[in-house]
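Much of what follows relies on a compact textual record of a protein's fold. The record below shows the convention in full:
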Amino acid sequence: MKHLCIIGLLLPIIVLSQKTGFVSGFITDASTGDPLPGANVIIEKINLGSAADQHGEYLINHVPPGKYTLTASMLGYTTITVRDVIVKSGDTTRVDIRTNACAIMEETVSVCAEKGTANRDISASVLSFQAGHAAPAAFQFKNHEAFPDWNTEEYDKINESGFLEVLRHPMSTFAADVDAASYANVRRFIMRDQLPYKDAVRSEELINYFNYDYPEPRGTHPLSINMEVGECPWNAKNRLVHIGLHGKKLKREETRPSNLVFLLDVSGSMNDPKKLPLLQKAFSLLVDQLNDEDRVAIVVYAGAAGQVLKSTPGSEKPKIKSAIDALHAGGSTAGGEGIRLAYRVAKENMIKNGNNRVILATDGDFNVGISSTSELTRFIEEKREDGIFLTVLGFGMGNYKDHRLQELADRGNGNHAYIDNIMEAKKVLMHEITATLYTIAKDVKIQVEFNPAKVESYRLIGYENRELEDKDFEDDTKDAGEIGAGHTVTALYEIIPADQDKKPEPVDLKYQTTRVKKDAGQTDEVLTVRIRYKKPDGNKSIEFSDVLNAKPAPASRLSDNFRFSAAVAEFAMILRDSEFKADSNLKQVKDLAQSAVGRDPYGYRAEFLTLVDRAEMLMK
């Protein structure tokens, strides 16, 4: 009976895919061959439609079988009506349209799909191919990124941190962050020839997208601390402090067995080539990385939630992949119900002293059942006490809920990545698999105390959503960030140096006075960094510290780590149009990054240089 219920739950999703077809094609200028992004294509009578992307390609989903008339229109171009377009169940009908610019906006030309041609150099060619079979190369959807008819993407407002006077605010405290979703999302915008929304740019996530070759930890702690100070590239009057943590690496034989639950969104909003099909390819890559003793269960949700694969050993990879490949999208989005079921399945299959984790893949557009971010995060906060971690993978565009997914990952002792293409899936789920899945330190907090004799003011670049009260540093009940095996965390402070010829004046308030100790000016110490963390299965924090005891180094002596992270930070400030960008410019970003590419085995740093070039073109 249980299996029948699950089949009944998923049947509408499968039937919807089998009983409908698709209409797709390119819309181009007949005289130049250029794509016409934004051109509208409507199927008359049933009111289904789409807009062409930057390649001039459009896609209309869920078209019932039948014979239809299509209308393609764009301001300044002849409206094309294509008659007798036949759509078959499970097939994709291709209608490519060429049209001419015109002076009369109401001009319309009618084309018969069966003939595939029209006068006046306006044509419509039609081709069908069966779903599930390879289409001819010219008709495959490799580059399809359909613009939605509306945009409901959501980003949390970022109030950029300003400079704080050391005498009044001697300490800066924040949660360690290794999320890198913002970088991939920013890349998605730029590669679509669009500058990102300012609040989509989280500086610390752009910086932490890249791994840095800090020395590995030695001794009892799973993290190493690495620091430098040098001239600030965008403001020569100031200095830049670079703080880097490196997590202990784990060999595959050192990893603990994993109990994983794939929680996959198969709602209607995921019915796009950049969503569910990309998700399926990404998770197949992940399955290939599993050890035989690992276990995987699959939970899906659309209008309701159901379990489509019971916990299965990693040795049965074909069975797991088959369950993933069989998924189809359709229906509303009961994300809250799916999360509840996934955590229940994870707990039922708990591996003692193992890696127990839910991996959620979605665009974040929940609209049935528990849907508010606050309700979802409260539930996840409760469940993390069971020792179940959470990884959140974001997909898609147009309705992407960035802030919600970031919040879920933060509250679930996990990480957040955005998968915009198959290469990003390879990075997250293959190259960085141990960092993504295996936590070596949880609730990691960083506290920096500045020497007022050396530093007048400071500002932390990014981490606005990760800042903590100073008193939270020693409070073990306060949640913080998680660091995976081999991962690096980088933070940058822009500082205004104290005047060495001027003794810091005490801060006199009505009831107290803040004074600088005499020996503060007799040392080269710039700051002290304190780290607190818990073991993955522990509840009590462990603390250790280090001191930055150095004078600013000239540019020639600064590491590639310093220079490259500074270039990424400057790029983020330019994209955000930060009030602190000072003399920032993209040429400087490019030169600085180019000088610090260093060892780049996967080409991520080289790709950054390409993004800077594209952004420069978009800003002209």
Q: What stands out?
A: Residues 2-19 form the longest helix (18 residues). The domain at 19-134 is CATH 2.60.40.1120 (Immunoglobulin-like). The longest strand covers residues 439-450. Residues 1-18, 114-150 have pLDDT under 50 and may be disordered.
